[in-house]
Amino acid sequence: MILPAILILSTASAALPGSPGYLPPEVSADLYRPAFGTDGFATIPARAAPGPSAGLDLSYLRNPLMWTDGAGVSHPILSDALSLHLGPGLGIGPVWIGADLPLWLVMVGEGLPDGWSDAPSPGDPRLMVRLLPMAADAPLAAGVFGELILPAGAAARLGGDPGWSGIIGACGGWRTGAFAVDLNLFSRVRPAADLGTSSLDDGFGFALQTAWQATPDLSLTAEMTGETSFREAFDPLQTPAELLFAARWRQFKLGFGMGITSGVGTPALRVVSGIRAPRPLPAPAEDITM
After folding, report:
1. Cα angle at 207 between 27 and 270, to 5 degrees?
2. Where is 259: in which H helix or E strand?
3. Which of 82, 76, 83, 80 is nearest to 111 (CA)?
C-alpha cells in the first residue's frame, strides 16, 4: 500500500452523452491512485514483518488520466490529484493483515463533475492479507498475497458504483549484504469500463524493486511497475508502466517518478512522501546465571 511512483503521458478517450470528456459513472477515480504496500511502495516484500506497523503517505499525481478529442487535442480528465493514505498493519507469525485508507485532498480536471473537488473526500479502502513464511533475514524468500478494494468513498461522488475489485499474486525476494531485490506477479479482477479508445478490464502485472542500504539511516530504492489487460494484452493504451526512485532517511521517505508508457492511468509525474512509525525493538534476552 504507498505512496510511490511517478509517470509520463496518458492518452485515453472517455465520453458520456452530453458531457464529452467526463468519466463514465462506473469508473472510480480510485482506479488511478497508487497501489501502496506496507512500506509506501507498490512492491510487496517477500519476508515476514512481525508486530504492528503504521504509515502515513502523501501522493501527488500530474495528468494521470487524459483523453483526446476528434481534433486530436488532449484534455486532462484528471489534471492534478493529491491524496493522503493511512496504512495500518499487523504481522502475526507468517501472516500479515493490513489496510490502505485513502483520503482525496485535491482533485482537479476537465472531466470531473462540478463540485467534485470542493472538499476532501474519502477514497476506496483496500484490505490486504499476506502469507510470508520466510524470516526477515532469509537470503531467499517467497510468499502469496491478496487484496480486496471496496467500492466506497470517492466512487460514490462520480455517481456510480464501480463494484468490488481485487488482486491475488505471488512475491519473491533475494537479499545479500546491503542489497535486496523483490518481485511481485499478480492478477487483477475489476469491473469493465469503456473509455472510448481504451478500456479497463481484468488484467495481470508485475512490480520489481531494488534497494540499497547505503548507511544504517539511509536507503535508496528503485521500483518499476507495469500492468496490462487479458483482453488486449500489451495494447499501448492498456499497458501502464511507471518508474519510481525514492530515498529513505530513518522513518522518512521522499520519491519521484515518471511513466514509461502511455497506458491509461499513467501520470506525467508522481511525487511521494511518507513517514513510518518506528518498529519496537525486541526485548533483550534475560541473563541466566547458573
Report:
1. 60
2. strand 252-259
3. 76
Q: Which residue has the cell 540499497?
A: 212
Of 161, 102, 96, 158, which is closest to residue 126 (Cα–Cα)? 102
Taking the C-alpha atoms of residue 45 and residue 64, their distance in angstroms, rounded to an integer, is 26
DSSP states of 176-201:
ETTEEEEEEEEEEE---EE-SS-EE-
Place of cell 500479515: 96
Alpha-carbon distance of 252 to 275, in angstroms, equals 5
Residue 6 vs residue 259, higher pLDDT: 259
**Residue 116, C-beta contacts closer than 8 angstroms, at least 6 positions apart:** 107, 157, 158
Q: Using the structure block, give the residue that is written with the C-alpha cell 478500456.
A: 199
Strand 74-86 to strand 89-92: parallel, antiparallel, or no bridges (unpaired)? Answer: unpaired
Confidence of residue 16 (pLDDT cuts 50, 70, 90): very low
Nearest residue to 11 via CA among 62, 61, 65: 65
Please, which residues have CB within 8 angstroms of residue 49's CB and are 6 or more apart in sequence? 38, 89, 91, 96, 132, 136, 279
Q: How far apart are CA 225 and CA 204, in angstroms?
A: 11
Average pLDDT over residues 103-117: 70
* Residue entry with cell 504496500: 37
